[in-house]
């Protein structure tokens, strides 16, 4: 358990406290104050906290006699020539030290007369910046620089080169770096800082503060894993779980009693990232949402490797090496639910069948057979009893008992006997073993099956989890992970085995 302070209640809307970034904030601030550095570029995926870091840095430098000018690429006029710099051209703009927003009026700029004369435009903008920021050090904080037009970026670069301002900008993952910034990098005048996800400790601290009380360690870890360390995703997952009633306060400790679910706002944020994909890229994303992780060699679309590279560069997928092969999966766990929500059932079945056929031809390992069995079963096309039996045994050994029960029952329905003599050497004896371990009895006409599951860990009696073996079993575990230890998913009635709630 994590010790927290009791507050007035959960805070799931608005801005959460700044947490887990102190060292990174100190590095950014020191880099900007360093004499040789003219620009700092923060890169990272949506929601990781780039804008928050920039705002905290601006606040810290404002307290140190810096003047701060804030610009954003999220306005409706950003795409227009010099539209992103429109706050600098306002006739009623303020002047004086500090942020733009206090002091006497500064002269406006007539873009109509200056557009054809770059030198006059630079002179006028410099005078405007000086009027806003005074004679001290000036920092321009620019959010989403990739959305600015080329003329605005070039003008900012000229202001940096002339020593009028220093620049702190944020750029999203996968967005092209403007040539003007690349020129600063080549001169060692700009520093790139990648903003990493939060670690589990920082996520846990954020949840404790937002919920106003202690958070169970398992709950904090599950929410952190589902959010991928992304603060925005973590906030929306927390809000969604509270709204769905799956995140509850039990005796002063917040517990997650179901799957973490996000809010519609989170779905919109994620869906926005996929709107610009080509049909080929979207096809690859949908296959990963249904069957991830997939070996790169099992993506049979033309130029699949190029497509994976482009998606990885955009921060939508990640590639890792495991067991001598390259595996690709979606970059964030919560992408799966958003993508699956846009797919029809027929599309899902088609992908399952296609990828099962590809895996059957290219992967003859035990975990390959396991994937084929699961995918075909999910698509409504059960495979041979022997493959289902093998899959049930592998699922049992990885402690995914609900899946073991599902595969074992499917094997019996496909013709594998449910019980065999104790000394039998038949391969189908594994069905009986899997059924015993998962506490599953074959269905009889007119009687529902009863499933009793012994979980890897029991949240009530805290019984230790058996260790997982290596090799094939650990690889299979990466394809199918066990769900909540307190509320297992089954197709029938569940009776948990626990020292405090014995089976009668």
Supply database-style keywords.
504 residues; alpha/beta; Rossmann fold; Arc Repressor Mutant, subunit A; 5-stranded parallel β-sheet; 20 helices; disordered N terminus
Query: Helix amount, in percent?
Result: 40-55%
Domains counted in the coordinates: how many?
4
| Ends apart, CA distance between termini | 31 Å
Strand order within the widest beta sheet: 2-3-4-1-5
How many runs of DSSP E, i.e. beta strands? 13
Give the integer mean of the pLDDT values: 74
Shape-level CATH architecture of the largest domain: 3-Layer(aba) Sandwich
Largest sheet: 5 strands, parallel
Radius of gyration equals: 28 Å
Number of helices: 20
Written account of the structure:
It contains 20 helices and 13 strands. With 504 residues, it is of the alpha/beta class. It folds into 4 domains: 22-194, P-loop containing nucleotide triphosphate hydrolases (Rossmann fold, 3-Layer(aba) Sandwich), CATH 3.40.50; 200-262; 275-343, Orthogonal Bundle (Arc Repressor Mutant, subunit A), CATH 1.10.10.10; 359-504, no CATH class. A 5-stranded parallel β-sheet has the order 2-3-4-1-5, sandwiched between helices. Strands 6-8-7 form a 3-stranded mixed β-sheet. The longest helix is centred in the last third of the chain and has 18 residues, at 345-362. Mean pLDDT is 74; it is low at 1-8, 91-104, 419-432 and 438-504.
Write the layout of secondary structure elements.
Elements: H1 22-33, E1 39-44, H2 50-62, E2 67-72, H3 86-89, H4 111-114, H5 118-133, E3 138-143, H6 150-161, E4 166-172, H7 179-186, E5 190-194, H8 200-211, E6 214-215, H9 217-227, H10 231-244, E7 247-250, E8 253-256, H11 264-274, H12 279-291, E9 294-295, H13 304-313, E10 317-322, E11 325-330, H14 335-341, H15 345-362, H16 366-378, H17 385-397, H18 401-413, H19 429-437, E12 450-451, H20 472-479, E13 493-494
Parallel strand pairs: 1-4, 1-5, 2-3, 3-4, 6-8, 12-13
Antiparallel strand pairs: 7-8, 9-11, 10-11
Helix pairs in contact: 1-2, 8-9, 9-10, 12-14, 12-15, 15-16, 16-17, 16-20, 17-18, 17-19, 18-19
């Amino acid at each position: 358990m994590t010790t927290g302070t009791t507050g007035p209640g959960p805070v799931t809307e608005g801005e959460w406290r700044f947490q887990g970034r102190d060292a990174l904030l100190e590095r950014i601030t020191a880099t900007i104050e360093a004499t040789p550095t003219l620009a700092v570029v923060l890169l990272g995926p949506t929601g990781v906290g780039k804008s928050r870091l920039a705002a905290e840095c601006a606040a810290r430098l404002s307290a140190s006699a810096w003047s701060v000018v804030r610009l954003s690429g999220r306005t409706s006029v950003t795409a227009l020539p010099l539209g992103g710099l429109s706050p600098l051209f306002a006739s009623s703009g303020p002047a004086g030290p500090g942020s733009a927003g206090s002091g006497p009026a500064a002269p406006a700029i007539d873009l109509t007369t200056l557009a054809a004369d770059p030198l006059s435009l630079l002179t006028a903008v410099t005078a405007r910046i000086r009027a806003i920021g005074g004679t001290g050090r000036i920092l321009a904080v620019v959010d989403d620089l990739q959305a600015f037009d080329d003329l605005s970026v070039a003008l900012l670069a000229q202001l940096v080169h002339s020593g009028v301002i220093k620049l702190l900008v944020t750029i999203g993952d996968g967005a092209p770096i403007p040539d003007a910034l690349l020129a600063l990098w080549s001169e060692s005048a700009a520093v790139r800082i990648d903003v990493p996800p939060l670690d589990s400790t920082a996520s846990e601290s954020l949840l404790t503060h937002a919920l106003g009380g202690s958070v169970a360690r398992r709950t904090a870890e599950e929410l952190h894993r589902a959010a991928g360390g992304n603060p925005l995703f973590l906030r929306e997952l927390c809000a969604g779980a509270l709204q769905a009633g799956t995140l509850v306060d039990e005796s002063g400790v917040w517990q997650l009693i179901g799957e973490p679910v996000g809010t519609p706002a989170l779905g919109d944020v994620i869906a926005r990232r996929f709107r610009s994909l080509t049909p080929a890229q979207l096809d690859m994303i949908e296959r990963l949402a249904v069957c991830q992780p997939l070996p790169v060699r099992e993506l049979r679309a033309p130029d699949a490797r190029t497509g994976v590279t482009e998606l990885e560069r955009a921060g939508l997928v990640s590639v890792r090496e495991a067991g001598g092969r390259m595996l690709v999966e979606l970059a964030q766990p919560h992408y799966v639910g958003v993508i699956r929500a846009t797919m029809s059932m027929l599309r899902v079945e088609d992908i399952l069948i296609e990828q099962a056929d590809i895996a059957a031809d290219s992967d003859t390992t035990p975990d390959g057979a396991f994937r084929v069995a699961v995918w075909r079963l999910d698509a409504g096309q059960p495979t041979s009893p022997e493959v289902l039996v093998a899959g049930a045994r592998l699922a049992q050994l990885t402690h995914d008992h609900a899946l073991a029960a599902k595969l074992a029952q499917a094997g019996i329905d496909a013709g594998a006997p449910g019980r065999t003599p104790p000394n039998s050497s038949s391969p189908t004896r594994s069905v009986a073993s899997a059924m015993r371990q998962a506490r599953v009895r074959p269905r009889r006409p007119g009687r529902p099956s009863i499933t009793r599951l012994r979980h890897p860990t029991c949240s009530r009696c805290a019984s230790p989890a058996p260790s997982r073996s290596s090799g094939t079993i650990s690889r299979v575990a990466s394809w199918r992970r066990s769900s909540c230890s307190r509320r297992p998913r089954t197709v029938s009635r569940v009776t948990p085995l626990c020292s405090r709630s014995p089976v009668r």
